[in-house]
Amino acid sequence: MKILLGFSLLIFAIAAQAGDRSIRRLDGRSISIAEAKALAQRTFVENHITGAQVAILNDGHLVWSSAFGLRDREHDLPMETSTTTWAASITKSVFATFVMKLVEQHQLQLDQPVAAQLDKPLDAYPEYTAAAADLVHDPRWSSVTPRMLLSHSSGLANFAQFEPDKKMHLHFAPGSRFAYSGEGLNLLQFVIEQREHKPLTELMQQSLFTPLGMTQTSMVWQERFASNVADRYDFTEKFISHTRREHARAAGSMTTSVEDLSRFVAALMDHNILTEDSSKTMFRPVIRIDTVREFPTLDQPSGGEGPAVGLAYGLGWGLLTKTKYGPAFFKEGHGDGARNYLICFTRHRDCMILLTNSDNGELAFRPLLEDIFGDTVTPWKWEGYTREDILQLRGKD
After folding, report:
1. 214 falls within a domain
2. Domain membership flag for residue 149
């Protein structure tokens, strides 16, 4: 009986200790994990967010991760922290980290023009014969470098398919200003695949995902994901699509889980992926940003929100260079039925990661980042994360 009583007391003590665990906010105050979980649950329900995963790191260590809602409404399957979800454009930052490993290994030069790193003119490759037909005759094309592509300062639009003639064009002098371009990341992928003679899926699996134990992460669909994958839903919580990306795209094909992304950012901040010098290069501002908004990517007027926090772009990552909490790196992921956000403040290696399988996901970002993590410095208007902006895009009041 005494043994059983002692065991019961031990279990109670462990449970109590777990219940007392807390998250350190950016302002130094603490919030209990129970309180954070209740707040997140309420926010996701109120905003009709079908499923979500959340993680927070303090001092570079995971202190809380949790999953909410459903990964599959039809079969009433719960979201889990290990559920593979579409990362959308968070792919770009993970790809950029892989690129920096190539730079470390002297397999790629950041400042050598892309045209000089290919064996023949870009339009001589079947994949680019039509899209690059005009680009290769623009004298500015010969100055476009991987550094410009990674920092979204090349002059390319977001994607050629959205250009009136469906072709690639330089809209300003390369390196002179910021304009988000997924096309640029896919172009750099093409250059790397031509030089390495291997597909990006294989390269990133060998370089990052396998060494880091990111078992729920891949650039393309893997059959091992079938038992735990998140479907995607619109703002009415109607099914949009299964998550099966068949073609690797540096701009946004990766699927992952909050557990895997936590491993990735922890290793990144511990310099277990890149050397400290390479990390400094990746997170060093390449281009300062003073536009009112991130999108649309071209012809944006200037505003003060970004400069107030030192908004800039490094190599594949957005940067906040002068906040009261120190510098930060971040990346959004935005696609049909996938709304994601990752931000890390480097002073104390504090991160928050949000992955959702819902078009409503962005409605939760500001309240959770502010109320749980204490992030009051993200440029919400520039990101398009104010509630008014999100609802206006849907045609609502």
Report:
1. yes
2. yes
Res. 19: pLDDT tops 90: no
| Whole-number pLDDT of residue 264 | 98
Which residue is associated with the tokens 């979201």?
79
pLDDT at res. 395? 65
Distance (Å, whole) CA 66 – CA 167:
43
Contact 118, 208 (CB under 8 A): no
Alpha carbon 250 to its chain's center: 12
- Whether this prediction's pTM lies above 0.90 is answered by yes
Q: How far apart are CA 366 and CA 243, in angstroms?
A: 26
CA dist 115 and 94 (Å) reads 24
Task: Reduce the secondary structure of 229-286 to three states and give it as a string.
Answer: ECCEECCCCCEEECCCCCCCCCCCCCEECHHHHHHHHHHHHCCCCCCHHHHHHHCCCC
Q: Which domain holds residue 112?
A: 23-393
Q: What is the mean pLDDT of residues 253-272?
A: 98
CB count in 10 Å sphere of residue 182: 22
Torsion, Cα of 152, 326, 303, 378 (10° steps):
80
Cβ atoms of residues 44 and 190 within 8 Å:
no
Q: How many domains does one find in the chain?
A: 1
- Characterize 29-56 residue by residue with b for buried, 16 or more Cβ atoms within 10 angstroms of its Cβ, and e for exposed: eebebeebeeebeebbeebebbbbbbbb
Q: Which helix (H) or strand (E) holds 20?
A: helix 2-20
Q: Is residue 259 part of a domain?
A: yes
For residue 18, is it within any domain? no
3-state SS class at 386: coil
Q: Give 164-188 pLDDT, tens digit per residue.
A: 999 999 999 999 999 999 999 999 9
- Give the tokens for residue 260: 């895997």
pLDDT digits over 186-244, tens only?
999 999 999 999 999 999 999 999 999 999 999 999 999 999 999 999 999 999 999 99
Sign of the dihedral defined by the CA atoms of residues 287, 293, 299, 301, in that order: negative
CATH for 386: 3.40.710.10
